[in-house]
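LOG
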Amino acid sequence: MDAGRGARARGAALNRLERWWFAEESALPLAWIRIAVALGVVRALLATWWSGAGALVWYGVQDGGWSPASPPGWSWVGGAGAAQVDRVVVGTVVGALGVALGVGGPWFGRVLTFLVLQGFLAVVHLRGSLGGSSDELLSNALWLLVVVDGSRTASWFARRSFGRWGASATAPRWARWLFLWQLVLMYTTTGWQKVSVHWVPWGPADALWLIAQQPTWQHADATWLASWAPLLALATRGAWLWEVTAPLVLALAVYDAAGRTRARHALWAWAAVGVAFHLGVAALLDIGAFSWASLALYPSLFAVPAERVRSRSAIKNANSSD
């Protein structure tokens, strides 16, 4: 009998876990992620192009660039010549704009996202040494958007199917948590790797100062930061602690989904620190699309209850009937 009770208890626990993971929430966070990630791809490609570096880092050696004449995977378009690279870049940008607009719906939209992902990977990996962490983060997010339907609301598909862009659509909780896990994993692994004396709180905490003095990352000369050394040391210690404690966000997200107000306030505070950190880094350093790609995942922090979505939909339907 004890064995039977234990089996029933385990079964009940699994049923509760399944109901929790598949509980319906608003699909709006997924839509914001879809839009931000797609525009991040557009930004990453066009920034490289407009800077004048595109021809150098993307074109093959036969056209004066640094890339191999026939990099792996490019033989199907005739190599990495200027014309072929231009077509793939333009096609990827146009496709990413389509993803941002939410064309195609749940099936063709995912196919379009997959094609954008393949085009983006093909371009940014023409020379593997020239890629960056933002490229990997955007690529991971695109992969998740292939798995998850992010076009249920704030999309052309919603406008065509339901008559308005902001359709009151829902999605299972696990879909948002895929992006939340990506966000927390990124910050946690980044923080736990910062074990040098320059980062840890009991050291001189001069990591941000040293990074700001790297010419390859500077927007401009940053020696003026020397007069702000105490504040910069405080920011270094704060950034380290904020990253290494990122797993706590998962616990806060669980409580937030249960309607705990304090957990929601704590998540807002954590997100505010992250936004300030990324905006500050982007202002001081030229790190490509990393800040954009990171902030694109922030909508995954917050659950919007399905009940709120349904009530808004009922109000809109009542107003339209009047």
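LOG (cont.) second protein
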Amino acid sequence: MNLLLLLVAVIPAVDSRPLATADAVKIVAVVCPTQNSKKGCSVCPDGHAASWSFDSISRGHFLRPDSDDILVGTGGCEPHANNFGGSVLLTNKNGQLQKVWYQGGLISNHCRKVALRGGRDILLCEDTWSGQGEEDLNIYSVDLTAPEDKRMNTLLRASDTLRACYAGGQMRRAYVERVELPDLDNDGLPDLRVTVQLGFTAKITQRQFERFCAGPNPKGPPAPPTRPHHFEFLLKPNGYALAPSSESPDLLEAEKP
């Protein structure tokens, strides 16, 4: 079973969309005017020659309430630690498209715009990551005016470790069941509620390890029963904050019950 099939497309009505050829032509003319391909660049941001694709586009008032900005999700040029991608921010100034910055590891291919009370937009995004048998779905907000190391605010990570099983370990089954945008504090703004199903196996025996966990492509043990957990975040002037009454997202990364 491909666990990633259970860990995608949970945020409703996303605004990110695949990059059309007409948009790509305009963007490559700004980002790499002399070293471009059909839908990207033939050189990476650090200057070395490689395929750098432009995959998605999100438009909004990301820098100011009256700005016209474009965030382009890119692929290539980045290592596994950065999930093989990044994003380029561009803005329109006096009718001219200008590059603002590029950030590796800022994945923006599946995002929804969220308007702050002041009129500026942030993004609510999701992305998957996998490695060494672990399958994660990350939900995070992105504030494009923040310093680079603070632009991505991880809200929660549903980390499934069934295929990373080992003898003596209690493995975690976790997946996002539902994402909702209710007004939790009656201020007229869309807050966030995420429901995650979570459960743990009993300790893996040596026999189970040999049957389910060993080999180059382990399937993992049978999935354990799960129960729902609810995580709530309030939309504040500068982005999302965990609601005081919410469960803590830290329990999603617990090693055992």
